[in-house]
Automatic annotation (TrEMBL):
<dbReference type="InterPro" id="IPR013762">
    <property type="entry name" value="Integrase-like_cat_sf"/>
</dbReference>
<keyword id="KW-0614">Plasmid</keyword>
<protein>
    <submittedName>
        <fullName>Tn3 family resolvase</fullName>
    </submittedName>
</protein>
<feature type="domain" description="Tyr recombinase">
    <location>
        <begin position="99"/>
        <end position="310"/>
    </location>
</feature>
<dbReference type="InterPro" id="IPR052925">
    <property type="entry name" value="Phage_Integrase-like_Recomb"/>
</dbReference>
<dbReference type="GO" id="GO:0015074">
    <property type="term" value="P:DNA integration"/>
</dbReference>
<keyword id="KW-0233">DNA recombination</keyword>
<keyword id="KW-0238">DNA-binding</keyword>
<dbReference type="GO" id="GO:0003677">
    <property type="term" value="F:DNA binding"/>
</dbReference>
<dbReference type="InterPro" id="IPR002104">
    <property type="entry name" value="Integrase_catalytic"/>
</dbReference>
<dbReference type="InterPro" id="IPR010998">
    <property type="entry name" value="Integrase_recombinase_N"/>
</dbReference>
<dbReference type="InterPro" id="IPR011010">
    <property type="entry name" value="DNA_brk_join_enz"/>
</dbReference>
<dbReference type="GO" id="GO:0006310">
    <property type="term" value="P:DNA recombination"/>
</dbReference>
<dbReference type="Pfam" id="PF00589">
    <property type="entry name" value="Phage_integrase"/>
</dbReference>
Length: 320
Protein backbone atom coordinates (compact mmCIF):
# COMPACT_ATOMS: atom_id res chain seq x y z
CA UNK A 1 0.00 0.00 0.00
CA UNK A 2 1.46 3.36 -1.04
CA UNK A 3 1.55 6.35 1.30
CA UNK A 4 -1.26 7.91 -0.72
CA UNK A 5 -3.37 4.78 -0.24
CA UNK A 6 -2.55 4.75 3.48
CA UNK A 7 -3.82 8.30 3.94
CA UNK A 8 -6.96 7.60 1.91
CA UNK A 9 -7.54 4.46 3.97
CA UNK A 10 -7.08 6.35 7.25
CA UNK A 11 -9.69 8.95 6.27
CA UNK A 12 -12.50 6.44 6.86
CA UNK A 13 -13.25 4.81 10.20
CA UNK A 14 -12.83 1.03 10.28
CA UNK A 15 -16.45 0.51 11.36
CA UNK A 16 -17.73 2.61 8.48
CA UNK A 17 -15.48 0.79 6.01
CA UNK A 18 -16.66 -2.63 7.18
CA UNK A 19 -20.33 -1.68 7.11
CA UNK A 20 -20.01 -0.21 3.62
CA UNK A 21 -18.22 -3.32 2.34
CA UNK A 22 -20.97 -5.48 3.81
CA UNK A 23 -23.64 -3.30 2.18
CA UNK A 24 -22.00 -3.55 -1.24
CA UNK A 25 -21.71 -7.34 -0.93
CA UNK A 26 -25.39 -7.53 -0.02
CA UNK A 27 -26.41 -5.40 -3.01
CA UNK A 28 -24.22 -7.19 -5.53
CA UNK A 29 -24.00 -10.79 -4.31
CA UNK A 30 -27.09 -11.51 -2.24
CA UNK A 31 -29.58 -9.34 -4.12
CA UNK A 32 -27.94 -9.71 -7.54
CA UNK A 33 -27.51 -6.04 -8.36
CA UNK A 34 -25.04 -4.72 -10.92
CA UNK A 35 -22.30 -2.17 -10.30
CA UNK A 36 -22.15 0.56 -11.38
CA UNK A 37 -25.85 0.75 -10.56
CA UNK A 38 -28.66 2.65 -12.22
CA UNK A 39 -31.17 4.80 -10.38
CA UNK A 40 -33.94 2.32 -11.25
CA UNK A 41 -31.83 -0.54 -9.89
CA UNK A 42 -31.26 1.24 -6.59
CA UNK A 43 -34.96 2.09 -6.33
CA UNK A 44 -35.92 -1.56 -6.91
CA UNK A 45 -33.40 -2.62 -4.26
CA UNK A 46 -35.08 -0.33 -1.74
CA UNK A 47 -38.55 -1.60 -2.61
CA UNK A 48 -37.49 -5.25 -2.41
CA UNK A 49 -36.21 -4.76 1.13
CA UNK A 50 -39.12 -2.85 2.63
CA UNK A 51 -40.04 -4.63 5.85
CA UNK A 52 -36.86 -6.71 5.75
CA UNK A 53 -34.46 -3.89 6.56
CA UNK A 54 -35.05 -0.93 8.86
CA UNK A 55 -35.18 2.64 7.59
CA UNK A 56 -31.79 3.31 9.15
CA UNK A 57 -30.29 0.25 7.45
CA UNK A 58 -31.72 1.30 4.08
CA UNK A 59 -30.24 4.76 4.61
CA UNK A 60 -26.88 3.17 5.38
CA UNK A 61 -27.10 1.04 2.21
CA UNK A 62 -27.71 4.17 0.14
CA UNK A 63 -24.69 5.85 1.72
CA UNK A 64 -22.53 2.81 0.92
CA UNK A 65 -23.67 2.73 -2.70
CA UNK A 66 -23.09 6.46 -3.03
CA UNK A 67 -19.56 6.13 -1.65
CA UNK A 68 -18.73 3.21 -3.94
CA UNK A 69 -19.75 5.18 -7.04
CA UNK A 70 -17.82 8.25 -5.91
CA UNK A 71 -14.71 6.16 -5.22
CA UNK A 72 -14.90 4.53 -8.64
CA UNK A 73 -15.54 7.78 -10.49
CA UNK A 74 -19.12 6.97 -11.55
CA UNK A 75 -22.20 9.21 -11.25
CA UNK A 76 -24.05 8.67 -7.96
CA UNK A 77 -27.43 7.00 -8.71
CA UNK A 78 -28.65 7.42 -5.12
CA UNK A 79 -29.11 11.15 -5.71
CA UNK A 80 -31.53 10.61 -8.58
CA UNK A 81 -35.08 11.96 -8.06
CA UNK A 82 -36.65 8.50 -8.38
CA UNK A 83 -34.48 7.11 -5.57
CA UNK A 84 -35.19 10.06 -3.29
CA UNK A 85 -38.95 9.81 -3.91
CA UNK A 86 -39.01 6.06 -3.31
CA UNK A 87 -37.10 6.45 -0.04
CA UNK A 88 -39.44 9.23 1.15
CA UNK A 89 -42.41 7.06 0.23
CA UNK A 90 -41.04 4.16 2.25
CA UNK A 91 -40.55 6.46 5.24
CA UNK A 92 -44.14 7.70 4.88
CA UNK A 93 -45.84 4.32 4.44
CA UNK A 94 -43.62 2.34 6.78
CA UNK A 95 -42.84 4.57 9.76
CA UNK A 96 -40.79 2.83 12.41
CA UNK A 97 -40.32 3.79 16.02
CA UNK A 98 -36.66 3.88 16.94
CA UNK A 99 -35.69 1.04 19.26
CA UNK A 100 -33.64 2.20 22.20
CA UNK A 101 -31.69 0.11 24.65
CA UNK A 102 -32.96 -0.03 28.21
CA UNK A 103 -30.90 2.20 30.54
CA UNK A 104 -28.67 0.29 32.93
CA UNK A 105 -29.43 1.87 36.30
CA UNK A 106 -26.88 2.38 39.06
CA UNK A 107 -28.77 0.01 41.37
CA UNK A 108 -28.29 -2.73 38.79
CA UNK A 109 -24.65 -1.72 38.41
CA UNK A 110 -24.15 -2.29 42.14
CA UNK A 111 -25.77 -5.73 41.92
CA UNK A 112 -23.60 -6.84 39.01
CA UNK A 113 -20.38 -5.49 40.56
CA UNK A 114 -21.19 -7.25 43.85
CA UNK A 115 -21.75 -10.48 41.92
CA UNK A 116 -18.47 -10.01 40.03
CA UNK A 117 -16.54 -9.34 43.26
CA UNK A 118 -17.93 -12.54 44.79
CA UNK A 119 -17.16 -14.47 41.61
CA UNK A 120 -13.58 -13.17 41.50
CA UNK A 121 -13.02 -14.22 45.11
CA UNK A 122 -14.51 -17.68 44.48
CA UNK A 123 -12.37 -18.13 41.37
CA UNK A 124 -9.24 -17.25 43.33
CA UNK A 125 -10.08 -19.78 46.04
CA UNK A 126 -10.51 -22.52 43.43
CA UNK A 127 -7.47 -21.40 41.41
CA UNK A 128 -9.64 -20.74 38.32
CA UNK A 129 -7.34 -18.24 36.64
CA UNK A 130 -9.48 -17.95 33.52
CA UNK A 131 -12.52 -16.94 35.58
CA UNK A 132 -10.45 -14.45 37.59
CA UNK A 133 -9.32 -12.81 34.35
CA UNK A 134 -12.74 -12.82 32.74
CA UNK A 135 -14.59 -11.42 35.75
CA UNK A 136 -11.92 -8.77 36.39
CA UNK A 137 -12.04 -7.68 32.76
CA UNK A 138 -15.83 -7.49 32.82
CA UNK A 139 -15.79 -5.44 36.02
CA UNK A 140 -13.37 -2.93 34.50
CA UNK A 141 -15.31 -2.74 31.25
CA UNK A 142 -18.64 -2.27 33.01
CA UNK A 143 -17.50 0.48 35.39
CA UNK A 144 -15.52 2.39 32.78
CA UNK A 145 -18.34 2.07 30.26
CA UNK A 146 -20.90 3.38 32.75
CA UNK A 147 -18.99 6.24 34.38
CA UNK A 148 -17.56 7.50 31.10
CA UNK A 149 -20.71 6.92 29.07
CA UNK A 150 -18.63 5.10 26.47
CA UNK A 151 -20.11 3.47 23.39
CA UNK A 152 -19.22 -0.12 22.67
CA UNK A 153 -16.75 0.76 19.92
CA UNK A 154 -14.93 3.14 22.27
CA UNK A 155 -14.51 0.45 24.91
CA UNK A 156 -13.14 -2.01 22.38
CA UNK A 157 -10.77 0.52 20.76
CA UNK A 158 -9.15 1.69 23.99
CA UNK A 159 -5.40 0.90 24.16
CA UNK A 160 -3.24 0.44 27.24
CA UNK A 161 -0.63 2.92 26.01
CA UNK A 162 -3.37 5.55 25.63
CA UNK A 163 -4.48 5.38 29.28
CA UNK A 164 -2.87 7.60 31.91
CA UNK A 165 -3.53 7.08 35.61
CA UNK A 166 -3.42 10.16 37.84
CA UNK A 167 -3.05 8.83 41.41
CA UNK A 168 -5.96 9.64 43.74
CA UNK A 169 -7.68 11.68 41.02
CA UNK A 170 -8.66 9.62 38.03
CA UNK A 171 -7.62 8.37 34.62
CA UNK A 172 -7.33 9.87 31.14
CA UNK A 173 -8.33 7.82 28.10
CA UNK A 174 -7.02 9.04 24.74
CA UNK A 175 -8.56 8.08 21.42
CA UNK A 176 -6.66 9.08 18.26
CA UNK A 177 -9.99 9.11 16.44
CA UNK A 178 -13.59 9.28 17.62
CA UNK A 179 -16.97 9.56 15.95
CA UNK A 180 -17.34 13.26 16.77
CA UNK A 181 -13.70 14.17 16.08
CA UNK A 182 -14.11 15.48 12.53
CA UNK A 183 -10.70 17.19 12.51
CA UNK A 184 -8.92 14.01 13.69
CA UNK A 185 -7.11 15.76 16.52
CA UNK A 186 -7.72 12.97 18.98
CA UNK A 187 -9.93 13.17 22.05
CA UNK A 188 -9.19 12.77 25.77
CA UNK A 189 -11.82 11.55 28.20
CA UNK A 190 -11.34 11.76 31.95
CA UNK A 191 -12.84 9.31 34.42
CA UNK A 192 -12.82 10.01 38.17
CA UNK A 193 -11.40 7.91 40.99
CA UNK A 194 -14.38 7.12 43.25
CA UNK A 195 -14.83 5.85 46.79
CA UNK A 196 -17.13 3.11 45.48
CA UNK A 197 -17.78 1.51 42.09
CA UNK A 198 -14.44 2.99 41.05
CA UNK A 199 -13.53 2.67 37.35
CA UNK A 200 -9.88 3.54 38.02
CA UNK A 201 -9.34 0.79 40.60
CA UNK A 202 -11.17 -1.71 38.40
CA UNK A 203 -8.97 -0.78 35.43
CA UNK A 204 -5.69 -1.04 37.36
CA UNK A 205 -6.81 -4.40 38.80
CA UNK A 206 -7.42 -5.68 35.27
CA UNK A 207 -4.09 -4.42 33.95
CA UNK A 208 -2.27 -5.96 36.92
CA UNK A 209 -3.88 -9.38 36.69
CA UNK A 210 -3.69 -9.51 32.88
CA UNK A 211 -0.12 -8.26 32.60
CA UNK A 212 -0.98 -6.17 29.55
CA UNK A 213 1.50 -3.43 28.66
CA UNK A 214 0.32 -2.36 25.21
CA UNK A 215 -2.42 -2.92 22.67
CA UNK A 216 -6.13 -3.31 23.24
CA UNK A 217 -7.30 -3.07 26.84
CA UNK A 218 -10.29 -5.40 26.52
CA UNK A 219 -9.63 -8.74 24.83
CA UNK A 220 -11.03 -12.25 24.77
CA UNK A 221 -10.16 -14.68 27.56
CA UNK A 222 -10.56 -18.43 27.01
CA UNK A 223 -11.36 -21.08 29.63
CA UNK A 224 -7.66 -21.78 30.23
CA UNK A 225 -6.91 -18.15 30.99
CA UNK A 226 -5.27 -17.33 27.68
CA UNK A 227 -5.74 -13.68 26.70
CA UNK A 228 -6.27 -13.01 22.99
CA UNK A 229 -3.96 -10.84 20.93
CA UNK A 230 -6.70 -8.71 19.39
CA UNK A 231 -9.38 -6.49 20.86
CA UNK A 232 -12.89 -7.66 21.53
CA UNK A 233 -15.15 -7.01 18.58
CA UNK A 234 -17.86 -4.52 19.44
CA UNK A 235 -20.52 -6.93 18.15
CA UNK A 236 -19.50 -9.35 20.91
CA UNK A 237 -20.34 -6.85 23.67
CA UNK A 238 -24.10 -7.30 23.50
CA UNK A 239 -24.05 -11.10 24.06
CA UNK A 240 -21.26 -10.65 26.63
CA UNK A 241 -23.24 -8.11 28.66
CA UNK A 242 -26.50 -10.06 28.40
CA UNK A 243 -24.78 -13.22 29.55
CA UNK A 244 -23.21 -11.35 32.46
CA UNK A 245 -26.53 -9.78 33.46
CA UNK A 246 -28.20 -13.19 33.28
CA UNK A 247 -25.59 -14.71 35.61
CA UNK A 248 -25.97 -11.78 38.01
CA UNK A 249 -29.77 -12.32 38.05
CA UNK A 250 -30.67 -8.96 36.47
CA UNK A 251 -34.28 -8.88 35.26
CA UNK A 252 -34.91 -8.93 31.49
CA UNK A 253 -31.25 -9.06 30.40
CA UNK A 254 -32.20 -9.29 26.71
CA UNK A 255 -33.43 -5.67 26.80
CA UNK A 256 -29.90 -4.35 27.34
CA UNK A 257 -27.14 -3.54 24.88
CA UNK A 258 -23.80 -1.71 24.97
CA UNK A 259 -25.75 1.56 24.65
CA UNK A 260 -27.46 0.77 27.97
CA UNK A 261 -24.37 1.88 29.87
CA UNK A 262 -24.35 5.31 28.22
CA UNK A 263 -28.10 5.72 28.65
CA UNK A 264 -27.86 4.63 32.26
CA UNK A 265 -25.14 7.14 33.05
CA UNK A 266 -26.95 9.96 31.22
CA UNK A 267 -30.11 9.36 33.23
CA UNK A 268 -28.18 9.02 36.50
CA UNK A 269 -26.41 12.34 35.81
CA UNK A 270 -29.58 14.29 34.97
CA UNK A 271 -31.42 12.88 37.98
CA UNK A 272 -28.53 14.11 40.16
CA UNK A 273 -28.56 17.70 38.99
CA UNK A 274 -26.36 17.73 35.89
CA UNK A 275 -27.63 20.18 33.32
CA UNK A 276 -27.60 19.30 29.63
CA UNK A 277 -24.55 21.43 28.84
CA UNK A 278 -22.51 19.77 31.59
CA UNK A 279 -23.58 16.30 30.44
CA UNK A 280 -22.79 17.00 26.78
CA UNK A 281 -19.32 18.28 27.64
CA UNK A 282 -18.57 15.24 29.81
CA UNK A 283 -19.81 12.59 27.40
CA UNK A 284 -18.56 14.41 24.31
CA UNK A 285 -21.82 15.06 22.50
CA UNK A 286 -21.63 17.90 19.98
CA UNK A 287 -25.28 17.78 18.96
CA UNK A 288 -28.14 18.35 21.39
CA UNK A 289 -30.34 15.94 19.44
CA UNK A 290 -27.78 13.18 19.99
CA UNK A 291 -27.84 13.85 23.73
CA UNK A 292 -31.63 13.90 23.97
CA UNK A 293 -31.85 10.42 22.43
CA UNK A 294 -30.17 9.02 25.54
CA UNK A 295 -32.30 10.81 28.13
CA UNK A 296 -35.55 9.70 29.69
CA UNK A 297 -37.90 11.95 31.59
CA UNK A 298 -38.13 11.28 35.32
CA UNK A 299 -41.87 11.96 34.96
CA UNK A 300 -42.68 10.48 31.51
CA UNK A 301 -46.47 10.78 31.87
CA UNK A 302 -46.31 14.21 33.57
CA UNK A 303 -48.18 12.61 36.47
CA UNK A 304 -46.16 14.28 39.21
CA UNK A 305 -46.33 17.73 37.63
CA UNK A 306 -50.09 17.59 37.04
CA UNK A 307 -50.85 15.91 40.38
CA UNK A 308 -48.97 18.59 42.31
CA UNK A 309 -51.08 21.32 40.67
CA UNK A 310 -54.49 19.74 41.34
CA UNK A 311 -56.72 21.09 44.11
CA UNK A 312 -57.84 18.58 46.78
CA UNK A 313 -61.29 18.25 45.16
CA UNK A 314 -59.76 17.64 41.73
CA UNK A 315 -57.47 14.99 43.21
CA UNK A 316 -60.47 13.24 44.75
CA UNK A 317 -62.32 13.23 41.41
CA UNK A 318 -59.21 11.85 39.70
CA UNK A 319 -58.98 9.02 42.24
CA UNK A 320 -62.67 8.16 41.74
Amino acid sequence: MTKLDQYVHAATRDNTRRSYQSAIRHFETEWGGFLPATADGVARYLVDHVGLLSINTLRQRLAALAQWHLDQGFPDPTKAPIVRKVFRGIQTLHPAQEKRAKPFQIEQLRLVINWLDQSIESARLTDSHGDVLRHTRNKSMLLLGFWRGFRGDELTRLHVEHVEIVPNEGMICFFPQTKGDRQLKGTRFKAPALSQLCPVTAYTDWIEVSGLTSGAVFRSVNQWGHIGQNRLHEDSLIPLLRSLFTEAKIDSPMLYSAHSLRRGFANWATSNGWDLKMLMEYVGWKNINSAMRYLESVDPFAQHRIESMLTPSEQLVTQL
